[in-house]
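so my prof wants the structure for this chain in the tokens format not the other one, which i didnt know existed until like an hour ago. anyway here's the sequence
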Amino acid sequence: MKYNFISNTIFSKLIAVAFFLGGLFGCNDDFLEEKPLDFLSSENAYSEASGIKLGINGLHSYLRDVLYYGDDAIVYFYSSMADVSYNGENPGGVTYEVLTPSNNLFYKLWQNMYILISRSNELLLYIDGEETTGWDSPEQRALYKGEVLFFRAYAYRLLTSFYGDVPLLVDAVTVPKTEFVRTPLKDVYAQVESDLLFATQHLPDPGKEEEKGRVTKGAAYHLLSEVYLQESKYKEAVEAATHVIDDFGYRLMTERFGATTDVFKTGDVFLDLFAYGNQNLSENKEAIWVAQFAANLSGGGGTGNGPQGSNVSGGGGQNNGPRRHGPRYYSLGNDPAGYACILGEFIDGKYTGYSDTLSRPVSWSRPTYHVTHEVWASDWDNDIRNAPHNIKRTYYFQNPESPYNGQVIDFSLWGSYETNGRNPMKDTCNFIYPYWIGKVGDPCHIQAEPLRSGGGYTWKDCYFMRLAETYLNRAEAYIQLGEMQKAADDINVVRSRAHAKPVATSDVSIDYLLDERIRELYTEEMRDVVLRRTGKFLECLRKYNDNPQAPGMNVKDHNILWPIPQTEIDATGGTLTQNPGYN
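here's what i got, hopefully its the right format
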């Protein structure tokens, strides 16, 4: 039988070192029961509430890694398949032309989400089991169940957006099974709603969670609002978002806070939101759910005691935001005078070639012109989100031996591209372009690999969810309901914090909202999901993605949904059917 991620219960070890349980010589009938006692399994690891908690830690860690770590990190990679960015290193290499049922790069989303579902269902089996002991109270059991259901709902919400009808698994698969069929969307959504409604009732209020990074009622209501938007249940989306906005003490941060180091000599509250160490502060009332990272720990990630401290996936807990979003400045070569453009940091008697301000990016997500310029045009100088310390647009030669040292890097200095031997596409798509350094970077705070200025990774915590997005979610629902004044009010809450001019009610539209989401949430939101639910996926891709080698990413109408992986179809003997356009 072919391996198939739906039909296999995947259990990852919760502790790095296996242990041996001794003392097995007592004369007890239980001794005759065949239970694995000398190695970790779900049966013995989840037999007590403490083990269940470790399993939930694993869900946190796993989701964190698939969203933010690796070449195919979901938050970053899938935005490069939307209207906001493209692969700057290889613009023609990752487009919709290679979105096929057999391409493993796109298989990862299906694989990762069903692993998350499998692990969640296994935990639920033991949470509901009478034999599981060590509970402090029925409330603790319900809380843990709510947290696991949240993760399962999160996975199905993404699967339904990308694939449409998908197999719905709500029980642990304990024996091999291949007879899977696609469940209608309405039935999957009904289960997701049920899971999240349970979570909203049994998760703790914000501020009462056991550790930083655990999910709360606020996170459950935020996710529920997005599910309702995806279902076109706009009144319900308003109600869910309103719970987040009104009931838990959240508020947008409007004054400077935390211990931000203004590397560029200027700063503001928007910079503070993303500065190292500020995401988990009790004074930060905007954070709803925060991904936890930490460098130089065993396994590479988490806070040790925190929910993402147990690195179940083995991936490392690194955030590759700088590597993905920043320009590959260190490959510029020589300046017009023949000297290296960037010498980098001086360590151990030599220059590294890398700047500790910029780290070591690769430019896998080069923002489109719409993102770098058009959305800012009407309020360029006022909107703090466009400030130079938040978006780096100017780069300088750095070589004391060169006459160009300290000057702004301007490609016209090399003369005409017809004669200077440089590649204009590499210069502007790969080497130099606007970089959201305040959000995804961690300037002058290298925690690992100093000779490569961090290697393109950061270990600062980042937001799974924050209140600004909740306001924009509710505004989206109001627009769909035709309540434009209420939508304008919500959008202007976000714009006011940014010192941007308020939007007039007459100017409010889905298009305006999508632009506002770019201004506020670029590098944070899953853009594909938002475009699909607003009905703007094909239009925005074709209008705004200016990939020089594949305009509009060569998207076809059927690419609104992704193909079901061929390996899964084969493993089910064809009972799992393919999406239109991919046969």
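also thought this was worth mentioning. The chain has 20 helices and six strands.
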